[in-house]
Amino acid sequence: MDVTVVLIILICYLTGIISIGLLTKKKSRTTDGFFLANRSIGWKSLTATITATTIGGSATIVAGGRIYSLGLPGLWYDIGGAIGLIILGLFLAKKIRKTSRITLPDITGSLYDGNVRYASAVLILITEIAWIALLIQSSSMILSTIFPIDYIAILLITSIIFITYTLIGGQYAVVYTDIIQFLIMVIGICILAAPLLLLKALPYLDTLPSSHLQFPVNQNLPLLSITSIFFMMFLPHVVGPDIYSKILSSKNTYHARIGTILAGLFKILFAFSIGVIALAATVLPSVQESITNPYQAIPLAISTVHPFIAGILLAAFLATMMSTADSCLLSAGTILSVDIIKNNKVITSQLGILIIGFFALLLAIYYSLLGTILDTLQLAYTVFTAGLTVPVLFGFYKEKTKATAKGALLSLILGGGSSLIFLQIEPISDYAVLIGLLVSVVPLVVFRNGKEKK
């Protein structure tokens, strides 16, 4: 492949994205502007930014690799999140926007107390580092497939790009770039990549293993595995710091609900597009000759098309990573500033973005040398899901659940801690999230209003 054409397209794309950050800098000088875009985001922009935020490394590189290896049930890595967004829009978006808070830990503090707020902030920061590391790895895997550059060097370059334009413009830059990235993603992934690669793969479809076409489960991913994957991806889309920051940035509850539901529907469209690309990669001879890692399936499939088209497609997939990474970085920087240091100044959040980005880079390097991209995903999603989602959901419905601050704090610690432990035990590591969720429910049930007094 002629990498010169691809490189020119990517440079133009990155220049445009950073320029948007510079143009929005004036709007982001105040804390409300930097953190929440002055709560001015309408449903169309909200749809684009939530979709772009939730289509990241897990929804493309990891999902594609799992579909390539295990078949169509790997779609649950995407479909679980899509259902989560629709549920969020239908039942919780209105509640979240009405709080008028700044962050997810800020909301947990209003639901319970300061101790729960602080503990949830710490847990979110840990998982945000892992999420950003996943995105750094995903972007680097795409770029390293095309460009003959040292993988660690690409990790470093990717991290610098992510951090730079998030620092510049805050939530305005994130939302505006997400709108452009959303359009690039739709054109590149859904309109170009999926149909082109399906046509390219048609002559070889008879070589596709029959188990790969079975859905919703198959012999590679039986029901218990699918259940674990579903909850691991579903709940962080119902309770998620980056998504909540978008909802809190919306104009009002109407825009919050519509934007979130539509984002869930778009996520389903992207899920099936990734499924088509991954199945094409499974049968294309040129991919089979080069692949050494299932998570190379998507970028290697892209490399089989014309260089100009490949450049557009690579920009689209890079857009999916950048649009998620900027949201994660901004959310983490805001939480560090607002909930941990308790200083709402923009400069404090920017310093937090630098710190979080640095540790995410270190984790990306660690897992690139000693693990896999799937390990990074499981770490982030498992600990967050088992630790925080259940206490938050119980808190939103306290009049029915009778949840207390003590129960929520223990749920957060025990759920997140137990899932992290079981994640290290190989025979049951794939089910660590289910075990952690069960553990997290117990304190919330035991320490309820009325029960503690008896």
How would you explain this protein's 3D organization?
- The protein is an all-alpha fold and 454 residues long.
- It has a single domain, classed as Sodium/glucose cotransporter (Up-down Bundle).
- 78% of the residues lie in helices and 0% in strands.
- Helix 5 packs parallel to helix 9, helix 14 packs across helix 15 and helix 16 runs antiparallel to helix 18 (405-422).
- The longest helix is centred in the middle third of the chain and has 51 residues, at 151-201.
- It is globular and about 65 Å long.
- The model has no long low-confidence stretch (mean pLDDT 90).
Number of domains: 1
CATH class: Mainly Alpha
Structural class: mainly alpha
What is the number of E strands?
A: 0
- Our count of helices gives 19
Question: How large, in whole angstroms, is the Cα Rg?
Answer: 21 Å
CATH superfamily: Sodium/glucose cotransporter
Nearest-integer average pLDDT: 90
Gap from first CA to last CA: 72 Å
Briefly note the CATH topology name. Answer: Sodium/glucose cotransporter
Query: Level of helix content?
Result: over 70%
Question: Which CATH architecture would you pick?
Answer: Up-down Bundle
Strand content: under 5%
Overall geometry: globular
Low-confidence stretches: none
In sequence order, what are the helices and strands, one letter per element? HHHHHHHHHHHHHHHHHHH
| Biggest pleated sheet | none
